[in-house]
Backbone:
């Protein structure tokens, strides 16, 4: 048997539920290869956020739990590690809705990312400069309370905070949410730049499939808590029907034969 | 028209009240620390205060010098903070606030019981070597003990302020206070932070316990001081140190003024309930307190 390229993250047949009752995932599979940008697509309530929380072992904090399958990051079972250990191992997530520390300044927000990784002062300083290079606007706002900055600035702050933890797998949950197209582009361009320059692997959940497929290498589509499609971004972007079937468009049933075809 | 002596007397009462209020602030600050970072209203703060004062005074009675007794008691309070995190908070993580509150209620009795077992039930005199003689300042007679207590309160607030804004662990505290879920996702170790906060609250309890103990004697009724801190918290907001200071000043001043000027008409004993009336009236106007939950939000 030929060995597949080593997956940085592998999600095998994962199911998850909230409060022991509300099932949110019923069998998700995905592999993320080192250095790639993988988009996780799906409409409202498909289970993207739940999956990403499971990846960072954040479900217990939301009274949720994995109910089956397993998730491995570099071979390590994430369910066995605390979120803090995962961050130190390089698995860093930018939460849906950004979750900046509102009363902390932009710079203090960034520095919490250094705390999360227990960076030395010198490392933290160097990383701050890198973040300000990536998002120059943040440097202007470094002394402003994050809660008083715009949505785009908050998203950049949250991304910068994540980068301060020196991720090896950077997980982002709907970075485009509620932002103007121009800002969304700036953010994706920045992410793409780091991916190209440093080979940083990215897992990005998006409802905005157009933008995600433009920047991603591959994509996985989830629907009703299941992964239903996997393919290269170019291949998926070329098919108009994907958008209408899965991403909140037409009313064709998800299990239509047409859709399954691509799944291979 | 009021004559000069009456004006002077009024200011004397006012200043005395303000200074006494800072003694309440000292107790309230312990609550704020824990509430801010973990959303728990720690009913056991009074018991911790008692425990700290009793431990200190017992060590001194066994012949320990002041500084050694202080450091040893602080070390014990740190140990207590970590033990509480491990045995009470960690198993109850993600439970509703009322459950945690009930747990601290139980904890208060456990700590008091432990204090009793360890050190007995006697009342101890605590002499910090600060005289309680009135001093004359700008024509007002003011207790020098109150002045020292006020200075300690301000020193503590300044130290906490510096700790929160200048140190890494202080930054982590504020992050957790702001958004616990984000703090978890960022990789902060919440259990460690909570344990540290409880240790810090233990330190505040120690300082407050010494001052209150010196004033009232170290006895079991010290733990009832929580009831004095509550109106201060209602007034100042449960999550603001500045609020605890200002709330203490307002409560202290209005309590003393009411006692002197209204007391004769309502037959005395006003001190025990007037603070609550002030706090409740205030709550009707501003439910989150003076400084509580100042939400930073762009509109
Ligand atoms: N904390 C929670 N408690 C209970 N059920 C939840 C919770 N969070 C999500 N769910 C449910 O789990 C399912 C999946 O939700 P999830 O947030 O993962 O979807 P999503 O794909 O991220 O959607 P969106 O695009 O709107 O963010 C939904 O049915 C949702 O109602
Ligand atoms: Mg989501």
Residues:
């Amino acid at each position: 048997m030929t060995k597949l390229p080593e997956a940085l993250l592998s999600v095998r047949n994962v199911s998850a539920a909230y409060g022991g009752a509300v099932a949110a995932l019923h069998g998700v599979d995905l592999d993320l290869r080192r250095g790639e940008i993988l988009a996780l697509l799906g409409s409202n309530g498909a289970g993207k956020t739940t999956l990403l929380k499971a990846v960072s072992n954040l479900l217990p904090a939301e009274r949720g739990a994995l109910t089956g399958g397993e998730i491995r990051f570099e071979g390590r079972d994430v369910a066995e590690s605390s979120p803090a250990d995962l961050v130190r191992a390089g698995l860093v997530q930018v939460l849906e809705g950004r979750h900046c520390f509102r009363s902390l300044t932009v710079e203090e927000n960034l520095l919490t990312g250094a705390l999360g990784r227990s960076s030395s002062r010198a490392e933290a300083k160097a990383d701050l400069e890198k973040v300000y290079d990536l998002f120059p606007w943040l440097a202007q706002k470094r002394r402003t309370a994050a809660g008083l900055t715009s949505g785009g600035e908050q998203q950049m702050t949250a991304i910068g905070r994540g980068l301060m933890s020196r991720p090896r797998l950077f997980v982002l949950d709907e970075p485009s949410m509620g932002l103007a197209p121009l800002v969304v582009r700036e953010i994706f361009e920045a992410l793409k730049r780091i991916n190209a320059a440093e080979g940083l692997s990215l897992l990005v959940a998006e409802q905005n499939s157009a933008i995600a497929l433009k920047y991603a290498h591959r994509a996985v589509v989830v629907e009703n808590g299941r992964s239903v499609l996997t393919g290269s971004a170019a291949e998926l972007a070329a098919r108009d029907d994907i958008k209408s079937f899965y991403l909140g468009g037409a009313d064709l049933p998800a299990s239509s034969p047409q859709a399954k075809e691509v799944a291979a | 028209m009021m004559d000069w002596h009456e004006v002077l007397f009024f200011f004397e009462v006012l200043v005395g009240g303000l200074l006494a209020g800072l003694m309440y602030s000292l107790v309230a600050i312990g609550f704020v620390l824990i509430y801010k970072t973990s959303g728990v209203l720690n009913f056991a703060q009074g018991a911790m205060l008692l425990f700290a004062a009793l431990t200190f005074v017992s060590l001194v009675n066994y012949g320990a010098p002041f500084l050694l007794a202080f450091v040893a008691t602080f070390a014990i309070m740190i140990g207590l903070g970590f033990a509480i995190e491990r045995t009470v908070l960690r198993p109850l993580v993600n439970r509703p606030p009322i459950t945690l509150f009930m747990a601290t209620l139980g904890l208060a009795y456990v700590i008091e019981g432990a204090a009793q077992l360890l050190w007995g039930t006697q009342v101890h005199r605590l002499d910090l070597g600060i005289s309680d003689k009135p001093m004359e300042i700008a024509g007002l007679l003011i207790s020098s003990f109150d002045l020292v207590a006020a200075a300690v309160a301000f020193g503590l607030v300044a130290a906490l302020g510096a700790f929160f804004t200048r140190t890494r662990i202080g930054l982590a505290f504020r992050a957790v206070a702001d958004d616990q879920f984000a703090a978890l996702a960022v990789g902060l170790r919440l259990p460690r932070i909570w344990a540290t906060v409880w240790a810090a609250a233990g330190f505040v309890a120690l300082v407050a316990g010494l001052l209150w103990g010196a004033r009232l004697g170290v006895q079991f009724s010290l733990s009832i001081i929580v009831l004095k801190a509550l109106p201060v918290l209602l007034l100042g907001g449960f999550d603001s140190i500045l609020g605890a200071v200002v709330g203490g000043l307002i409560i202290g001043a209005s309590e003393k003024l009411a006692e002197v000027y209204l007391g004769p008409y309502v037959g005395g004993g006003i001190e025990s309930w007037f603070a609550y009336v002030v706090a409740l009236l205030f709550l009707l106007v501003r439910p989150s307190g003076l400084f509580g939950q100042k939400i930073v939000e762009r509109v």
Residues 295-299 of chain B have pLDDT under 50 and may be disordered. The two ends of chain B are 50 Å apart (CA to CA). Residues 22 and 150 of chain B are 6 Å apart (CA to CA).
